[in-house]
Fold these 2 entries.
Entry 1:
Amino acid sequence: MLEPSPLPLLRLSAPVPPAASARIDSAMNRAITLSTLARLVASGAAVSKADLVSAAGLARTTVSTGVDELVARGVLGLDGVRPTPGRGRPADRLALCPGGFVLVADLGAHGAHLAVLDLSQRLHAHTHVDIDVADGPDAVLGAIESQLTALRASVPGPDPVRAAVIGVPGPVDGRRGVPVRPPIMPGWHGYPVTTRLRRSFGCPVLLENDVNLRALGEARALPADQAPLLFVKVGTGIGGGLITSAGVLHHGADGAAGDIGHIRVRGAPDVRCVCGNIGCIEAVASASAVARRLSESIPGAEVATINDVRALVSRGDPTAVGLIREAAGLIGEVVATLVHFYNPARVTIGGSVAAASDELLAGIRAVVYQRALPLATRNLVLANSVLGEYAGVAGGTVLGIEQVLSVDGIGVLMARA
Ligand SMILES: [Zn+2]
């Protein structure tokens, strides 16, 4: 039984040849072609050979040979016909055949979205569980493994799990599959997250930063001309994710690109950040920073939580709204600088505070348009996240399916199908 999906169909990218093979021979060319065709069908961008010719920009005969091979090996199948305009013969409608699932775990500081999807992006099950990343990797990953296993078991059928994607709220080394000195995740530095989950689920596992996942999900839910895209998440911390004009994540040399929470802002109060430095944007303008200031501003009040901030802001409480406006001004300064540096087509503001009220977006927008020069803001769209809390699951879906239908993955699929 399929759940109504909160996600639109997401665009999948054309494959990049594996870095290990510098030489592209005809076998590699063929694998790239097959991977491209399968991803276009999985994206919903093409359902017939004619669609594939225009979407892939490949010759008709290349597409025809590739589709025939994918059909012969059970990767694509014919799913009825689609009427063509005019008097033409109805076109065969193509669909991905192999069963199998992608598991996504999108971890925040205090909760995780878990989802089970198939290769055609259909959402079969999803849930939200409370976790605390500060409990350490053994406790948290143990809980995630058992919850994901239960969620998979709730979906009928014997199809295998073909890939899993996990997002965590800290910097990661995606190649090694380990978190790298994550400030709010004690005990996680260097922990072999992907190795552990690969053993549990018996499939390739990808580790990504949580804001990167959101940035990717958001960019692939929007038209291609909305990239380059900068995603700014304002929650317990402040983080950023960068999507290039080609629609892919920009990780930087060590995976630290977009980690904007520790940029220092001029004129910010001298507050010590979890990273040890003073005056980081995260220490003065995150939802936790606002919660702390809210507690200080109401004498005798209980310590406010992020949920309290969200509730007060959505009710229009003047103290909370004032603090959010102040935070928005500081975040706006950082975003204006980044807009000059990166010239994005879109800046997306995400996180629970942005979802609760437009104050944060309005405040950031005011500063960015005032501070940044016209060339950088002429066509800039600055908006709240279109996917909201599901942006991370969307990004995980994209990464997982792209892995299964990658140049390497398609070979595995054809051998088994
Ligand atoms: Zn810091």
Entry 2:
Amino acid sequence: MTITIRENSEFTNILQKNLMSRHEEKRRRDNTVHVSDIITTTCIRKQYYSRKFPDLDPLTNESIHHFVRGESSEFVITKLANLGVAQADIEMDGIVAHPDIMNDDQKGLIVELKDTVNGRRLDFYDDTFRSYLRQILYYLVMTGIEKGIISIRYNIKELNWIKSDSEGDYFFRPFKAKDVGIESWEVFFPSDDIAREILKNEMVRRKNLFLKALEDNDVSILPRLIDEGKRVRCPRCPFYDKCMNQDSETSEAREMAKERDLLNIRGVLDFKNSAVI
Ligand code: SF4
């Protein structure tokens, strides 16, 4: 008798295929507008193209891997945390959202869980963190709840980027690199804060614009990314050629892209860099 061990690519293929179809099912095809479609820090044009031209952005092994990691982490943490309802359906003026955890007992709480393999630690000055922040602020506006938590799970020890060249990307790990683990940030948004109304108007305006573009098959009314967002994200965008070389952008959309972000106005936010772990 001999114990035999062979690579089983057939099993891997079946698993990949099933995961891919599950991921594909979760892709949005209809005209329902989600919070993630209209957040100012994501590209609203990219959200449009993903709906209209999904074939230009085929699923890859990497995207399936991210999907599985995100889904499994969220599933386990929402079960273990036992803090409230997972993926509750919330809606405001035709905009829908599903916060990871929502507890509307007493004063209420909304938790958004994030999971990253990025070595960089995030804070208020980082675009990714600011998109998490806006997402939770939108949820707080939609529900009237005052307190939110952004909880970020880091899967690798801290690693800082130095440069990129034709050979690849260069990073270094500081001697006192932060370990793998979770950092959580509390956001308190008073129910009588005037910024709630401003954010609500921003959301409804972007939702109406996004819906109009979808219904009229007209991407030109949606603003392209500008500045840092354009520099970092556009070169890697699967819709780059269509967006930049084939489709146009109205002057109103160009002006909209340049509008000042509410969160950049002095006094709107009070940020202190001391994470709760
Ligand atoms: S190329 Fe840039 S602006 Fe155009 S859809 Fe992609 S991310 Fe958005």
